[in-house]
Specification:
The complex is a heterodimer of chains A (230) and B (105). Chain A is elongated, with a radius of gyration of 27 Å. In chain A, 2% of the residues lie in helices and 44% in strands. By secondary structure, chain A is mainly β. In chain B, strand 1 and strand 2 form a beta hairpin. The termini of chain B are far apart. Chain B has five helices and two strands, in the order E-E-H-H-H-H-H. In chain B, helix 2 crosses helix 5. The longest helix of chain B is centred in the middle third of the chain and has 20 residues. Chain B has a two-stranded antiparallel ribbon with strand order 1-2. Classes of the chains: A mainly beta (230), B mainly alpha (105). Chains A and B meet through strand 3 and strand 4 of A and strand 1, helix 1 and helix 2 of B. Strand 4 of chain A pairs parallel with strand 1 of chain B.
């Protein structure tokens, strides 16, 4: 009679199983790993068994895009960036240096690559201060956001840095809100700070953005874009 | 042709993009004098505010300071060219304004 089962308790088996000879143990049978599936899946107990979960990203900021311009580029456009995947996005712009003193501008992109530039569609206001002892406040209603209250100085070793938070770009019920902060060196060789906000007067979903100086071209610019998971 | 950057990759502008860029540059450059005058007015406002205390009732402003403050107020009437604006905004290596109109009497 063939041996069909061994009672390990009665047999008193000891030692370590040689894993090289073991077959894969399925999750339902108590396996503790996922050998195939989708990134960000984990194991969860359903109440009766253990299965692989749907893919869930770790809560926190996730880096979506990093890059920069080449010297001489007149503007940079990032497309296919924002979606309903994340409700809040963070935009970091740094090493911003241009060929002439110029104000930094930003416009939204919708669809595949449609740059939005309707008159008076960008409303913005901000406060700032500079080391000349003066205010750097600004506001406007224009064809683009001016994302600083000063004209940024273009010296080769100067660097304008800026970060903005964009809320719910894929939503179509409310206008899009951008909140930002930053600083740099302005014309006249004074440091300045900035804090501001802007609203795009439109309900269309935003998919990307375009950044450019009011005059001249970029000498340098880098960006990092993040989405908030959770 | 200039270049543009799409998703981190540079390429040459199309003719249409170049025309739009050129128009933008022309518009920005055409307002250069306006921006300089705005900067001059900002400096002037700061200078006037710094010396407003001289006009308080318990002090007597000297005739030199009266003339100086009037000269500041008259800047837009007496200066109107780009070269004159440049002269008013000239600074030394330390960032200090060098035109005598800004100096104390």
């Amino acid at each position: 009679m063939a041996l069909s089962k061994i009672d390990l308790d009665k047999a008193g088996v000891t030692g370590t199983l040689p894993t090289s000879n073991l077959d894969t143990v399925g999750v339902a049978q108590g396996g503790t790993g996922i050998t195939s599936g989708t990134t960000d899946q984990f194991l969860k107990f359903t109440g009766t068994t253990t299965v692989a979960s749907a893919a869930v990203e770790e809560p926190g900021w996730k880096l979506l895009r990093t890059g920069g311009v080449s010297a001489g580029d007149s503007y940079a456009t990032l497309t296919g960036l924002f979606s309903s995947t994340y409700k809040i996005y963070k935009i970091f712009l740094y090493d911003w240096n241009t060929s002439i003193d110029a104000a930094p501008y930003l416009q939204w992109v919708t669809g595949t690559n449609t740059v939005q530039s309707a008159s008076n569609s960008y409303k913005y206001a901000g406060v700032g201060y500079n080391t000349s002892g003066g205010g750097s406040n600004w506001s406007g209603s224009d064809t683009q956001f001016q994302i600083a209250g000063e004209t940024v100085r273009h010296d080769s070793n100067e660097n304008f840095a800026w970060e903005g938070t964009l809320y719910n770009p894929a939503g179509t019920a409310l206008k899009k809100r951008l909140v930002f902060a930053g600083g740099g060196k302005r014309t006249g060789n004074y440091d300045f700070s900035l804090n501001g906000t802007g609203e795009w007067d439109d309900l269309t979903a935003i998919t990307g953005f375009k950044i450019f100086p009011s005059g001249g071209t970029f000498d340098s610019l880098s960006w990092k874009i993040m989405g908030l998971v959770g | 042709m200039g270049t543009v950057n799409i998703n981190g990759v540079s390429r040459e502008m199309t003719a249409e993009e170049q025309a739009e860029f050129d128009a933008q540059q022309t518009a920005w450059n055409s307002k250069s004098a306006d921006r300089k005058l705005a900067e001059i007015k900002r400096i002037r406002l700061q200078k006037l505010q710094e010396t407003d205390w001289m006009g308080m009732s318990d002090t007597t402003m000297s005739s030199d300071w009266i003339a100086k403050r009037q000269a500041w107020r008259d800047i837009p009437q007496n200066h109107s060219t780009d070269a004159e604006y440049e002269a008013l905004l000239a600074r030394d290596a330390d960032g200090n304004l060098t035109n005598t109109i800004w100096s104390k009497p």
